[in-house]
Amino acid sequence: MEVAGFLAKKIISTFFHPLGFCLLVMFVGMILWRLRPQKRLGFRLILLSGLILLVCSLPITSHLLMRSLEVQAGNYADPAELHRKGVRHIVVLAAAMVTQGKTPADRYQTSILRVLEGIRLWKAVPGSILVLSGGAFAWETSDADAMAEFPLQIGIPREALIFETRARDTDDEARLFSEIVGTKPFALVTSALHMSRAMALFRGRGLNPSACPCDFYARDLPPVYSWFLPNAGSLAITQGAIHEFLGRAWHRIRGQIRGQEPAL
């Protein structure tokens, strides 16, 4: 049931993202135009979907949306400050694993930047433990041995590693990592756009994280000449930002985040 609910949430949310939403509106517009060619509603829906897709594909749009999220995350973490706070666990969120036909580094896919930032902090905080998540479904492979291969190859001892392979989303991670870190201070490593929501969910469960953002997209403005030149990369960034806004709304509806996210 949990898997079915998770998949249903992912499928439904697809149609709230720019690409899925525009394709849905365009499809409806095509049907209406076909059924009632004398009416302009179908044509207007097709035109509207194309316009939305165009705006979402602009570098200036993706930058502004992403920047609004990343400024809340703050700057890169200072290992000396983490050490001063008594941080022992470096928790890295959602290190997605795919083991078939992949090298150890490539298995972490897009989460490799989070993993590398976690390793940077682990190396600089004496006596710390690196905690990696990598949840998977029953038909996928995501076990501790596969997750350990890359850290072990670059010199991290096995006793300095902890793996959590059950989490599928941030709420799962907040619940499961509470079993590992309790109420002790720990470093929370995730992408900058995701940091504010992750901090709110973890703090909502009584945990004591310190924000350690990475994977910044919008620290610098794109070149002025490219602001209004649409491209697929900008659309992907826009979708990532909107996914984050939708995630915050979902958690508020469920009562997991109340009011404004706490200051980091």
Task: List the main descriptive attributes of the protein structure presented here.
single chain, 264 residues, alpha/beta, Rossmann fold, 2 domains, five-stranded parallel sheet, 10 helices, 5 strands
Account of the 3D structure:
This protein has a five-stranded parallel beta sheet, with helices on both faces. The two termini are 35 Å apart. With 264 residues, it is of the alpha/beta class. The chain contains ten helices and five strands, in the order αααααβαβαβαβαβα. The model has no long low-confidence stretch (mean pLDDT 87). It has two domains: 2-70 and 227-253, no CATH class; 79-214, Rossmann fold. Helix 2 (18-35) runs antiparallel to helix 3 (41-56).
The number of distinct structural domains comes to: 2
Q: What's the SSE pattern?
A: HHHHHEHEHEHEHEH
The CATH first-level class of the largest domain comes to Alpha Beta
The residue-averaged pLDDT reads: 87
Q: Please tell me how large the radius of gyration is.
A: 21 Å
The share of residues in helices is: 40-55%
Query: Could you list the spans in which at least 5 consecutive residues all have pLDDT below 50?
Result: none
The CATH architecture name of the largest domain reads 3-Layer(aba) Sandwich
Quick rundown:
The protein is α/β, with parallel strands linked by helices and 264 residues long.
Fold topology:
Elements: H1 2-14, H2 18-35, H3 41-56, H4 59-70, H5 79-84, E1 89-92, H6 112-124, E2 129-133, H7 144-153, E3 161-164, H8 170-181, E4 185-191, H9 192-204, E5 208-214, H10 232-253
Parallel strand pairs: 1-2, 1-4, 2-3, 4-5
